[in-house]
Amino acid sequence: MPAPARPHRPAEPAGTDVLVVGAGLAGLHVATLLARQGHDVLLVDRRTTLAGAIRTTGIFVRKTLDDFPLPEEHLGPPIRRVLLYPPGMGRPVSLVSDRDEYRVGDMARLYEAAAVVAVDAGVRLALGTRYAGRQGDTFRLTGRDGPAEVRARFVVGADGARSSVARDLGLDRNRHLLIGAEEVFQVPPNDEPPTFHCVLDPSLAPGYLAWVVHDGQHAHVGVAGYADRFPEGLRRAVERFSASAPGLAGVERPEEVERRGGPIPVGGVLRRISCAEGLLVGDAAGAVSPLTAGGLDPCLRLSELAAPVLDDALRSGKPDALTHYSGAGLRGSFRGRLSLRRALSHVRTPVATTAAFTLLRTPLGRAAAGRILFGDRSLPGSPAPHAGAARN
Ligand SMILES: Cc1cc2nc3c(=O)[nH]c(=O)nc-3n(C[C@H](O)[C@H](O)[C@H](O)COP(=O)(O)OP(=O)(O)OC[C@H]3O[C@@H](n4cnc5c(N)ncnc54)[C@H](O)[C@@H]3O)c2cc1C
């Protein structure tokens, strides 16, 4: 007689203290900080390698370089010079700082270095693993070996501008977005100092700018703006710009270039970025300067704010601790830049931009531009001593 069939009992999902979704800079950093506090952290990313599908130019501003010990060997030469071009690209306004202002990161190497630091700290990193949804404290993941479930006391949405975790937790979501794309290729050194060329022309980059960063090692040639205002689409806009981009005299664009691109949230930090089940960091939380569209500094700083809040909730067993993590107060640091972003979004014609350049050429205009480009403003949230983003 055959043995009676045992009732099928699905295996208990594996458990973790914190599931971090997204191994961009924000997710890698918050995961590392939590693991260093002794918590069990599972960090998942749908990318199969952190060296691929990069969505950023990787310009780090001085304040980030001062506060976070990024590995020197993965940073390009310092940049002090910015050239601002009006429509038509004639007669740029030149701004030169007496300090090193920017460095372009080799992002593939920086992500990989940060992943090594995370794993050394005890983070369990699962690449090629997509977050696919949530039911209570159980999260569905689709990995290399098929679907799996994991239970977590808290989830962190570090999954970028269009965060699924934000949606599933019922938190605020980014509604005000630009899109950007660029081509990246190696360049031979030239006689020019490393330069950030910015073209302000709404017919080319509606609502934002087109750029060339030439630091003597790589060129990044890109365009960003409001998606619905590119008459022929973003890709075509990059091609058009690339054909006449400034700062590339004598540079031959190779046949094969690396292409990067993605959405950029510019509505300021979202208000509701936490609940009893988890919280958001980085682009998922809208932590990007609405004016400059810089998100690398704010994403590191917001992770610095998020980690102690999660640590507190895990140790005390009181999920209420997470309610202290709110974007409402942080929005204040973006108020001025939000107003300027709104103003910029209304400049729709090259004629209006050209007129604005008349102001930009005055001492007052130059001083204002210098404050935006070389200013020290950022989110609160300085790293704890020895809390490096990718080292230590
Ligand atoms: C073209 C462009 C150029 C930019 N240039 C600069 C710059 O020079 N300087 C600057 O300061 N800022 C720049 N920004 C903004 C900056 O890159 C971002 O603000 C920053 O990288 C955000 O980091 P993050 O970790 O929050 O998100 P991301 O780096 O976007 O990381 C999110 C991660 O989540 C993963 N993910 C998403 N969904 C899932 C899922 N369902 N399951 C598993 N994994 C998932 C993704 O694969 C990704 O790795 C740029 C943005 C763009 C689009």
From TrEMBL:
Location of the FAD-binding domain: 139-302
Lineage: superkingdom: Bacteria
A Pfam family per the record: FAD_binding_3
PANTHER family from the UniProt entry: CONDITIONED MEDIUM FACTOR RECEPTOR 1, GERANYLGERANYL DIPHOSPHATE REDUCTASE
Protein name (database record): FAD-dependent oxidoreductase
